[in-house]
Amino acid sequence: MAFQAAIPPGGTWFDTLKKSFVNVPIDSSNGNAIPTSDFLEAAESLTTLFDLLGSLAFTPVKNDMIGNIKKVRDRQLASPDDSSTLQSLVLNELKSKKHTAAEGLLWLVRGLDFTSQALRHTLQNPDAELSTSFRTAYTGTLKPHHSFLVKPVFSAAMSATPYKKDFYAKMGEEEKAKVELGKWLDALEEQVKILKEFQERKEAKW
């Protein structure tokens, strides 16, 4: 499980990440292929954001994302030659009449979409508190796919978000953090978009 490392003096939360989405290469010459190892490391690094939010209510959210990362990684470890990119991993798993990793990636992308939309809303709406940003993002991403048993768990997390000023204080130097957050979101959003489009293709469904 990923845990948040200490933020260096004058630095930000982004300096603690083992891998940033900014550093995940996209192979545009190969159908926008995304390397599996790099992406999973970046996603795992993202989960420490939920520690930054500082509430145990976010533990189920974090654990859900980590569980989906594990499903994809397990497939990669079981069949490394067929899993160098996320797209090849999914297609080759589906050929074997299985879809554990493909389904894990589907839910992982939904979780990443939720997180990126919440943080983008936060950046674009300076007067909105985090709880508003996270609720707005949840309604448009994960909520339609969640059962009535899961929705209250995530709703509790939305209500447990800290005040925005406290959140930025935990991220380190505020203005630097906002700039780095924008760049990180640009990269994350591009990768989420590529994967959502891929997952809509007939051959990527089960």
Quick summary of this structure?
With 206 residues, this protein is mostly helical. 60% of the residues lie in helices and 0% in strands.
**On the 0-100 scale, what is the average pLDDT?**
93
Q: How many H/I helices?
A: 9
Order of helices and strands: HHHHHHHHH
In total, the number of strands is: 0
| Spatial gap, N to C terminus | 29 Å
- Specify the structural class: mainly alpha
Poorly predicted regions are: none
Radius of gyration: 17 Å
Strand content: under 5%
Q: Helix share of residues? A: 55-70%
Q: For the report, how would you describe the main beta sheet?
A: none
Outline = globular
Q: What do these coordinates show?
A:
The chain has 206 residues and is mostly helical. Helices cover 60% and strands 0% of the residues. It has nine helices and no strands. The chain has helices spanning 36-46, 49-52, 59-78, 86-95, 100-124, 130-140, 151-159, 164-171, 174-199. Helix 5 (100-124) crosses helix 6 (130-140). The longest helix has 26 residues, at 174-199.
